[in-house]
């Protein structure tokens, strides 16, 4: 635990004075995060047929304007490759697009399971309020600690930085917890529309004997996978929180970019399984379809991607042009 009145290690001088091993580790972490972000952009444009909707744009913004600058800024900063003012400016802009917009990604896919519009509106207001409260003081104290460097500025920065990391961590924990609760509710309580879709899917896919049973089992497997993915996301958030309170500034900054790039990639796994489970138009954020409406893949995703893991590109000989 560092002294609150000290300038965080790496905030001003970078990591040039750190051991060579630490410099290499940070470089590898940032390189992987940047690679993940490039792969994410490719996956986005390979996967989505129509570039619209909160889910698509929040993923794209969080990746291109979030993760990428959050890698470039620390590279300039930690290795003294550019002015500190420019490095911190790029890092802060990347942070604005990476962390709050990640919450919008989580929020946008809640529409697939949570159909209470009032509750969804409250969640959106909470995201906006958290962002408005936490971002401005974090930015001000970052520059104050870096360029003024007095004990009060350093203490203010460290307290507000920890409050900011804690606040966004709690926000994402809440969103993941709501998502897990709704997913488990679908599994245990049995949403008629969703279960009807799974039964139809089981019969259509030709699963041998007992189409209804295999459909139910398939829905259960999808739910378990979704819950597991969200628990991994929670674990990553908690890991960042621990690093912040331990006082490992430069490691926490580097790992944040990597963690958020991993979380965004996992969104493709979530998306694929949500499409399998719901078979509805996610980008329109509409209620779950009526029982008499035929199951279909959302029209912003190619049919060949309907039941696959979106963390990897899909091999297809020809794009399917058939509908339904």
From TrEMBL:
Keywords: Membrane, Transmembrane, Transmembrane helix
Segments passing through the bilayer: 20-46, 53-72, 84-107, 123-144, 222-251
InterPro entries according to UniProt: DUF7703
Domain DUF7703, first and last residues per copy: 21-184, 221-279
Classification via Pfam families: DUF7703
Entry annotated with the keyword Oxidoreductase: no
Keyword Transmembrane found: yes
Record-given protein name: DUF7703 domain-containing protein
């Amino acid at each position: 635990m560092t002294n609150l009145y000290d300038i965080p290690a790496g905030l001003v001088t970078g990591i040039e004075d750190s051991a060579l091993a630490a410099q290499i580790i940070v470089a590898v972490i940032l390189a992987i995060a940047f690679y993940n972000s490039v792969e994410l952009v490719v996956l986005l444009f390979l996967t989505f047929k129509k570039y619209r909707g909160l889910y698509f744009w929040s993923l794209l913004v969080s990746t291109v304007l979030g993760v990428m600058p959050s890698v470039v800024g620390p590279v300039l900063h930690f290795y003294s490759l550019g002015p500190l003012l420019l490095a911190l400016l790029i890092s802060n802009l990347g942070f604005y697009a990476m962390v709050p917009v990640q919450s919008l990604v989580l929020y946008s896919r809640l529409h697939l399971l949570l159909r209470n519009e009032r509750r969804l509106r409250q969640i959106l207001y909470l995201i906006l309020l958290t962002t408005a409260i936490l971002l401005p003081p974090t930015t001000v104290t970052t520059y104050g600690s870096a360029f003024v460097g007095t004990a009060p500025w350093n203490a203010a920065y460290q307290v507000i930085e920890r409050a900011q990391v804690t606040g966004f961590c709690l926000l994402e924990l809440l969103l993941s917890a709501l998502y897990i609760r709704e997913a488990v509710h679908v599994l245990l309580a049995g949403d008629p529309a969703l279960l009807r879709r799974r039964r139809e899917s089981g019969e259509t896919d030709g699963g041998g004997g007992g189409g209804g049973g295999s459909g139910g089992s398939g829905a259960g497997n999808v739910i378990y996978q979704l819950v597991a993915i969200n628990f991994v996301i929670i674990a990553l958030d908690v890991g960042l929180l621990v690093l912040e309170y331990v006082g490992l500034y430069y490691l926490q900054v580097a790992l944040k970019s990597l963690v958020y790039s991993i979380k965004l990639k996992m969104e493709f796994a979530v998306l694929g399984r949500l499409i399998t489970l719901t078979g509805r138009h996610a980008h329109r954020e509409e209620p779950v379809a009526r029982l008499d409406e035929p199951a279909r893949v959302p029209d912003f995703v190619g049919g060949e991607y309907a039941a696959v893991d979106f963390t990897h590109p899909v091999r297809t000989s020809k794009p399917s042009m058939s509908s339904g």
